[in-house]
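Hypothesis: this fold can be encoded by more than one sequence.
Test: take the structure tokens below, design a sequence, compare later.
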């Protein structure tokens, strides 16, 4: 099967959705498919068998930040235009259109333009994303309406989390939806690199709490920093290491945490291949998000590391974690501090939590289970593929069938 995949993101770069897109391509490659990926002109061409990068060039733009921005407007327009031209010119070359997030609007075009079975990769709730970034209510309403329309015009939806699958079911009773968790495709930890991180981060056996990920406001770092200040009197005082973020974000965070002295170390971004080694150098791993429902990709890497995971008791985490496999705490500085303190004062209990977490990851969140979940989602397209010679597909096909029954 040859797939036209459209992702309005900087693939590959070491952040949420671009990681997810690359992993989806890896899974489809393992299943024997070929993927032509239309994406931003920004990012690294990571080699994957059967994957061809088709970059939509936009002169003058060489970077794009996480979340909505002015740069995304011409970038998204260029990606969508390139995808349409490709689909029209090589109509017979492709078997499936696979879109990520806002690129799903391609499914709303007339079928004579995009006459392909459509897989919608739903990594976020578009209205919630708009709200999280301070967009006015009319825009969030429009985003939600567009998302519902995309779902209804899709043949299969891949939802990254159970909460997104619920949104799909609410938008359409007839669109099949498959939950595919974003498990890591990362190498194992390197002992020498882990030892190097540990020497730099911990002096005299000092406990190290590691956070990895972006430094966007929704990640809950203010509460985490406040929690570390509350723990300064603990002996030995734990040290927070922050891994990730852009150079500018890391610089701002270093300035902000200078008053805390060596309680906080801002490592900044590291190569994705080194992340498992960094996690292995920690005593505790933390995800301090204050709200939201999308499970961060880091959680699956955290579980595989075998280190105790501290996470806030919110939907983002509890749809994957429970009290048996993670230390779930209130999303406040006091709650986070209490969770860290308990792990440090009761290491046997924390180690038991870590073992449970790793067992969960090895049972349910492996590359094998991931590839199998993608295979099941694509198996839903068999009926569409057999009917593609007809005039209707996707939502139009289902509406026709419903009319025939009526």
């Amino acid at each position: 099967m040859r797939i036209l995949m459209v992702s309005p993101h900087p693939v590959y770069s070491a952040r949420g959705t671009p990681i997810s897109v690359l992993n989806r391509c890896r899974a489809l490659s393992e299943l024997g498919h070929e993927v032509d990926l239309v994406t931003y002109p920004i990012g690294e061409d990571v080699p994957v068998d059967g994957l061809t990068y088709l970059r939509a060039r936009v002169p003058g733009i060489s970077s794009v930040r996480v979340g909505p921005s002015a740069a995304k407007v011409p970038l998204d327009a260029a990606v969508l235009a390139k995808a349409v031209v490709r689909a029209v010119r090589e109509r017979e070359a492709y078997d499936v259109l696979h879109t990520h997030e806002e690129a799903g609007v391609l499914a709303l075009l007339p079928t004579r333009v995009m006459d392909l079975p459509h897989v919608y990769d739903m990594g976020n709730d578009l209205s919630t994303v708009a709200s999280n970034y301070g967009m006015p209510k009319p825009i969030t309403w429009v985003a939600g309406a567009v998302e519902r329309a995309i779902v209804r015009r899709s043949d299969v939806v891949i939802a990254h989390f159970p909460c997104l699958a619920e949104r799909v079911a609410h938008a359409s009773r007839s669109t099949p939806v498959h939950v595919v968790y974003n498990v890591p495709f990362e190498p194992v930890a390197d002992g020498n690199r882990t030892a190097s991180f540990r020497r730099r981060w911990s002096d005299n056996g000092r406990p190290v709490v590691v956070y990895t990920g972006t430094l966007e406001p929704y990640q809950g770092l203010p509460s985490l920093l406040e929690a570390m200040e509350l723990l300064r009197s603990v002996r030995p005082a734990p040290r927070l290491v922050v891994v990730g973020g852009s150079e500018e974000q890391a610089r701002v965070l270093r300035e902000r945490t200078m008053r805390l002295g060596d309680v906080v170390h801002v490592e900044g971004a590291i190569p994705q291949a080194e992340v498992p080694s960094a996690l292995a150098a920690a005593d505790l791993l933390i995800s301090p998000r204050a709200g939201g429902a999308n499970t961060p990709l880091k959680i699956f890497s955290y579980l595989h590391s075998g280190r105790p995971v501290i996470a806030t008791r919110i939907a983002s985490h509890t749809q994957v974690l429970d009290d048996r496999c993670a230390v779930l705490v209130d999303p406040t500085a006091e709650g986070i501090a209490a969770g860290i303190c308990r792990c440090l004062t009761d290491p046997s209990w924390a180690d038991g939590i870590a073992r449970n977490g790793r067992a969960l990851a090895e049972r349910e969140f492996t590359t094998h289970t991931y590839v199998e979940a993608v295979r099941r989602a694509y198996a839903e397209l068999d009926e569409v593929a057999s009917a593609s010679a007809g005039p209707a597909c996707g939502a139009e096909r289902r509406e026709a069938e419903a009319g025939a029954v009526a």
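The chain has a mean pLDDT of 90. The first helix runs from residue 16 to 30.
Hypothesis status: open.
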